[in-house]
Design brief:
14 helices
Length: 419
């Protein structure tokens, strides 16, 4: 099991799309996105219902992509909305940790580390993935809260002015550290899954590494992402191009008038309009274009949407039989999973890229090649082998002892002969 030969520089970032194009990694993100989306979907429909919008009205206007921002909700409805968003983000972060672990094993040369093994690792190490963000947020709240307390002291007549003036430098440096911590918080959002998935750090270790990366590698963080994000966008575009033309080929063959004909158009057209609702998407693009804040990009997007629907989506007659409706429901599920796979591949590229970046950072800053380390699974395997070896030695020792005892007892059992 030989590790991959990395250059430990920017050239390794270009490996990310290829390493991310793995059924194992995309499946991990697909599973997490289904769980996160389900929680978001249910909680948003409940929030919209609490805002006075019925299920039917929400389905007619927003379909599979509900969002409370389209309505004025109560505080409880907004709380449900944000809980749904946070649950989806948590699911993605846990999946990032699993993919980081798979990538780390792959970089070490282990191609047989499964998604099941990765989820077992996440179940064991989920605490730092979540509580690192909580710890960073609490640090920010603490400094802002302390600033507010000292500001209250400043309101004291006559003396308050001196409470502000004398320790001013302390307030200044505390403010600078708070700004720095806010930047570290953003860095921790990006790199915590990679930190936990590679070097198996706890919460304090993840916080320390986030501060270390922000302080020692700021320009690499920016420069590498300038390369990674466009690379991810281009790769996902190619991925979508291939899958959409595969989708079109199925429609062309099965939809031939000598084969399924209009029946396929009814089934696939209805399913596609549910998963990719033309009215909703074009209304969003038109609203962005009319706002004038997208510099004409949304206008181009509107034309591209029209071309997409005319090229790929068959026209449904709208009158589906019972069996066609059931078939459209099943096809709709598969189309939605294909849609999530686009997002999952993008996340896979980003996660693999962040893992490679963290590997480079450790090599550059500490001269620590983490691929040469023995991880916890390898240490457990070594312990198991040692136990088996010791058990075999104990068996051989007990066998030798029994043989020596039997040899010692043989003369005692002999009866002397009388002549």
């Amino acid at each position: 099991m030989e590790p991959l030969n990395l250059h430990f520089d920017v050239r390794d970032i270009f490996r990310a799309p290829r390493l991310a194009l793995s059924g194992k990694k995309i499946w991990i993100f697909l599973f997490a996105n289904v769980i996160g989306y389900s929680a978001y979907f249910i909680l948003n429909y409940i929030a919209l219902a609490l805002s006075g919008i019925s299920f039917g009205e929400t389905w007619a206007s927003q379909g599979m992509y509900p969002c409370l921002y389209a309505a004025e909700g109560s505080w409880f409805a907004w709380a449900l909305f944000w809980v749904g968003v946070i649950l989806w983000i948590v699911a993605i972060n846990l999946a990032c940790t699993a993919v980081a672990r798979v990538t780390y094993k792959q970089l070490k040369g282990d191609e047989f580390y499964s998604s099941g093994d990765a989820w077992k690792f996440v179940r064991k190490h989920w605490h730092p993935v979540i509580f690192t963000f909580v710890s960073m947020a609490l640090i920010l709240v603490f400094f802002v809260g302390m600033a507010a307390v000292f500001a209250l002291f400043g309101k004291i007549p006559y003396v308050g002015e001196f409470f502000f003036a004398l320790p001013y430098l302390l307030y200044f440096f505390g403010s600078v550290f708070t700004v720095y911590t806010a930047i570290v918080f953003l860095v921790s959002l990006i790199y915590t899954p990679a930190i936990v998935g590679t070097i198996e750090e706890d919460t304090m270790g993840a916080v320390f590494n986030s501060y270390s990366i922000t302080w020692s590698q700021p320009w690499r963080v920016i420069f590498y992402h300038i390369i990674l994000l466009p690379l991810a966008a281009i790769s996902v575009g190619i991925f979508k191009f291939v899958l959409f033309y595969g989708f079109k080929l199925v429609n062309m063959v099965f939809g031939h008038e000598m084969l399924m004909g209009q029946k396929l158009s009814n089934i696939v057209g209805s399913a596609a309009q549910t998963v990719w609702p033309m009215d909703l998407f074009t209304s969003i693009a038109s609203a962005c274009a009319n706002s004038g804040s997208c510099c004409g990009v949304c206008s181009i997007g509107t034309h591209m949407l029209n071309d997409f629907y005319s090229c790929f989506i068959p026209v449904s007659s709208g009158n589906l039989s019972g069996t066609e409706s059931a078939a459209a429901f099943i096809v709709g599920i598969f189309l939605f999973l294909i849609t999530l796979s686009f997002f999952s591949y993008f996340l896979s590229i980003v996660s693999v890229g962040e893992t490679i970046m963290f590997t480079i950072f450790r090599k550059k800053s500490d001269d620590d090649n983490i691929l040469d380390r023995k991880d916890e699974e390898e240490l457990e395997e070594d312990d198991d082998e040692d136990e088996e070896y010791n058990f075999g030695d104990d068996d051989s020792d007990s066998t030798d002892t029994q043989e020596s005892e039997s040899n010692d007892s043989e003369p005692e059992d002999e009866t002397p002969t009388i002549e």
